[in-house]
Amino acid sequence: MVSTPLAKPSTCASALLRVRGLTVNYDARGGQPFPALRHVDLDISPGEILGILGESGCGKSTLALSLLGLLPGNAHVEGSIFFEDEDLSKASESRWSAIRGAKVAGLKGNKIPVGSRIVAVIDSYDAMISNRCYRKGLPHAEAVRRLLADSGAQFDPVVVRAFVEIAEHEVEEVFGATGISSSAVI
Asked: What are the φ and ψ backbone dihedral angles of 182, each rounded to 5 degrees?
């Protein structure tokens, strides 16, 4: 995704979120970096809604993950992300987690709708085990280990326990329905 704003981004201090020159490359197989975002600039003011449109693979998810500090370890980021005038470019995971939970979502614990808590676990698991052009999917056991490690912090522990129990019993059937051999990822 390349940013092509119709108007020059605002430099006013009232922007809740300011992104400047955001560039993301992934380490890909074969050693060549895979460019996902190039020089993205955007401003979002309080109460403003921004829609991101584009075809599959254009970088929408990478942009969203960048803005939430959730990029995978093989991502290389340049540029700056300011939230409430705080530069998050080099923020620690604990700082990102605090911002995501308290400031971005504004919801904590049981105030998050249960459907959203379930989708978060399932979507994360799917993202971890799926092959991408820039990385191989994780084995089932490693994805489950990561879900359990983040249980209580990023994920609802009750939902994680229920998901893991179901996944352990149905992993062969689920992978069979997708046409992927579970032995290829487990």
From this structure: -65, -25
DSSP state of 22: E
Collapsing DSSP to helix, strand or coil, 42 comes out as strand
Q: For 17-105, CATH number?
A: 3.40.50.300
Mean pLDDT over 149-153 rounds to 87
In this predicted structure, what is the pLDDT of residue 163? 92
What is the SS3 assignment for 48? coil
Q: What is the pLDDT of residues 77-120, one digit of tens each?
A: 999 999 888 888 877 776 777 777 655 555 667 777 788 788 88
Contact 112, 12 (CB under 8 A): no
Helical axes 140-149 vs 114-129, angle rounded to 10°: 140
Token representation of residue 116: 């959203």
* 78 torsion bin: left (phi>0), alpha (psi -120 to 50), beta (else): beta
- To the question of pTM greater than 0.85 for the whole model, the response is no
**Residue extents of the structural domains in the chain:** 17-105, 109-185
